[in-house]
Amino acid sequence: MNIPSELKYTKDHEWVRINGEELTVGITDFAQSELGDIVYVEVETLDETLNADEVFGTVEAVKTVSDLFLPVSGEIIAFNELLEDEPEKVNTDPYGDGWMIKIKASDLSEFDNLLSANDYKALISA
Description:
single chain; CATH 2.40.50.100; 126 residues; alpha+beta; 9 strands; globular; six-stranded antiparallel β-sheet; three-stranded antiparallel β-sheet; 4 helices
């Protein structure tokens, strides 16, 4: 299972990469493997400001549909449009081309409350 140490994670299986005030968010390798083949990613919250833990979109796999939860409060400033035509990128490259959204964080201190790679490993192996 690929769990990059430089990222932060949520209990809901999203990962977060920080770059200044901009955060990139996707779902983890563990999450995509549990979901199976992803056929659609929907994010209708572009340009909206949401609170942490609010639903920002859904990911649809062959077997199920799962909500996507915002890891920190902020404005959703970008959606990975590549996923409109190639949602399987979430399966093949969850930490690269399979990213989902970019956020302008309202409060960067919320980033510090996310799980470290080791904490996330402990969560999924429990």
